[in-house]
Amino acid sequence: MGKGFVYVMINPSIPKILDMVQVGKTERSPDERAQELSAATGVPTAFILAFTIITSNTATKQQ
Questions:
Q1: Where exactly are the structural domains of the chain?
Q2: pLDDT grade, residue 20 (50/70/90)?
């Protein structure tokens, strides 16, 4: 994967005590990816985009 976005998403349904976030990469819009994750995972509330960065190399930036 090359140019695209690296993102961090949170979900209000996941208790803060677990300190869990969704970190990922996409060549599409991060907002589009948030909608996709919210629909596919079965969590009761939608994911919220907390951070995003445009990069020329998503594979190395996500690590």
A1: 4-62
A2: confident
